[in-house]
Amino acid sequence: MNANTVERRTALHGFALTAALLSGLALAGCQTAPTGEFNNIDKAQGSTENISSLSAVIQRNPQDPEGYNVRGSAYGRGGQYRAALKDFDTAIQLSPNFYQAYSNRALIQRFLGNQEAALADYNRAIQINSSYDAAYIGRGNLYRKAGRTQDAFNDFQKAIQLDTTDARAYHNRGLIYQSQGQHAFAIEDFSTAISLSPDAAEPYNGRGLSYLAMNDEDNAFADFNMAVKLDGKNAEAWSNQALIYERRGDKARASKSYREAVRLDPTYQPAKDGLARTNAG
Prior knowledge:
TPR repeat-containing protein, signal, mainly alpha, Serine Threonine Protein Phosphatase 5, Tetratricopeptide repeat, TPR repeat, globular, two-stranded antiparallel ribbon, 14 helices
């Protein structure tokens, strides 16, 4: 599913440098955030065949809340959000303290734009289990989208203090450090996120931006290249790669990468501007 992960743009050294500063990390779990976080989830888990098999399990044991929770997650991965919401509702009706189902339902509420309902579900999940890291990460993303940066930071910090192995906690805390200009801390968090989820492109792209902000162009370029390799549909990564080519005077390669970014996202202004610059004359 193609969700736009870019929410912040920044300029460095006279060029329009762009980044997914407020992106979410795509992981195979239903507690991820709705913008960008369903991108790399295995859609086969939401396939008709998988839904059918899960429905058969529910038919054999209709009073088991876990069955509805699992099928709701599969519906979410397959983009069937209303069906997912219905299954999570049923799971919670059958088991009112099912904190995972509350957190999963919160994600779907967020995707559907029901932010207050999402917050209530995250709060309930945390009330039931104050050590549930996924709910803190999900709520942190909700706060971050709402501009409540300190609240978001506190939730990501709490998840990390709980020894989470979820890369999103580090990635998203890194984004906050980055937005505050604390690039050394941001690089450390992005690096941890990469170690936990080495196949995710977003932390490479984010770390590359912080390297560039610290004038470490070589490491920035390596990270942008890796982001493009891992996710060839990431327009921001292509644009950032192009920027390095442009800074190095290689207009041909810069133009090619900017052109790919524009092809992937025709509305992405920094890539359009970069393409105009490198094609000038």
